Amino acid sequence: MKLWKEIEQAGDRIKKVVLRTPIIYSEALSKLTGKEIFLKLENLQKTGSFKIRGAYYKLSWLSRAKQGREVIAASAGNHAQGVAYASSLLGIHSTIVMPEGAPLAKQMATRAYGGEVILHGQNTDEALSHAREMEGTGKILIHPFDDEEVIAGQGTIGLEILKDVPEVEGIIVPVGGGGLISGIAAIVKKKKPKVQIIGVQSSHAPAAFRSLERKRIVEVKVKPTLADGIAVGRIGEITFPILQQNVDHIVTVNEEEIASAILILMERKRLVAEGAGATPLAALLSKGIRVKPKKIVLVISGGNIDVHLLDRIIEKGLTRTGRMARFEVLLRDVPGSLTKLTGLVAQHHANILHIVHERAAMDIPIGFSKVILILETRGPDHILEIKKGLNEKDYIFQNLS
Fold it and tell me: Within this chain, do residues 182 and 292 fall inside the same structural domain, yes or no?
């Protein structure tokens, strides 16, 4: 069966289980980019990502003879949860191999969906290698991307985009091993060949980008990235020729651009996206990338981000844009000096988020104390205003950031 036909079949088979996620128009992002921007919200999908689509479609095809057997998968989180959930719905036992560094929240979620979790390896590739070894014990491997039925399940997103935004001119899709973009590209190019399909990867895991560039599958060394859901060192054997035929081009974004996109989606749209899910917006906002289509759908592929990581991204983003600042000020160690300092900060309409008062540190002169202020500010000009006000009152800065 041709892939595009199987995608249509997958759409019928999974529709009672998988959510048809909304596509929303974003006025804020459209103004920011000068395009017409729509967001396909797979972060609102069951299990928090698109992976349930391919997992359920694949598992639904297991024959009755095979349904009594176990399945095994390898994933840092999203495929793990998709397979575990789909297996539970179909009464199949699942074992999921996850990298040892997989976020605890994703491990717990996978177990909650019914999966038996085994921790092995430092990354998804090592986990997948271990899963292949365990496949020899009678378990059926559910590959995260290099499987035609998994690809067909993911491709149902393309069907939904064409129905909801029939005049779409471009679709930007996160790329890891290539399963998601292969499915979307196959159905979209069949029905509307002029729609541009643009893939995006982290510059720390550019396997698909390098492979298309060199016209052969290239394995890359993966560096730590916020987009852990697409941190794959080698594109699939099945997905690579599909990308060559149907994907217009693939671009890469850096970690700062990914972090910024996560923060913008939170602030402008109140949407929580994981690193991989934010890469389409990161690509659109990148100064080094030109995107020609005007009416664009961004596939927000998932929202399973670690809460502690999200907190660090928010803090770093606020600091970078001047909405949070750290002042270290030396005060004479006399009564009332701290009150005067905080009063002066209040006069400049800055909000004190956190304050630390130190006396014993080795770098503090005798007769002084150090106050560390974490301030909520309105931007770089506001920070300069506060600094100028403190300078005029002869406060001594030990550090400013």
Answer: yes
* 313 shares its domain with 284: yes
Check whether 316 has a pLDDT greater than 90. no
Catalytic residue among 46, 301, 369, 370: 301
387: enclosing H helix or E strand: helix 380-392
- CATH at residue 353: 3.30.70.260
How many other C-beta atoms are found inside a 10 Å radius of the C-beta of residue 255? 17
The DSSP secondary-structure symbol of 49 reads: B
What is the residue range of 137's domain? 51-141
Length, in residues, of the chain: 401
How much is the average pLDDT of 258-286?
95
Is position 15 annotated as part of the catalytic site? no
> Using CA atoms, how far apart are residues 265 and 309, in angstroms rounded to an integer?
15
Burial letters 348-386, b for 16+ CB under 10 A, else e: bebeeeeeeeeeeeeebeeebbbbebbbebeeeebbebb
168 and 252 in one domain?
yes
On whether the pTM is more than 0.85, the answer is: yes
Query: Would you call 301 a catalytic residue per the annotation?
Result: yes
Is residue 226 a contact partner of residue 262, using CB atoms and an 8 Å limit? yes
38 and 174 housed in the same domain: yes
Q: How far apart are CA 68 and CA 66, in angstroms?
A: 5
Among the listed residues 35, 51, 106, 189, the single catalytic one is: 51
CA distance 129 to 136: 12
Q: Dihedrals φ, ψ of 332, to 5°?
A: -65, 135
H-only helix segments in 200-353 = 207-214, 239-246, 255-269, 275-285, 307-320, 337-347
State pLDDT tens for residues 50-73. Answer: 999 999 999 998 755 565 678 999
Domain boundary at 253, 285, 317, which?
317
Residues 161 and 246 in one domain: yes
Residue 215, burial from CB neighbour count under 10 angstroms (0-12, 13-18, 19+): exposed
Q: Name the residue with higher pLDDT: 147 or 396.
A: 147
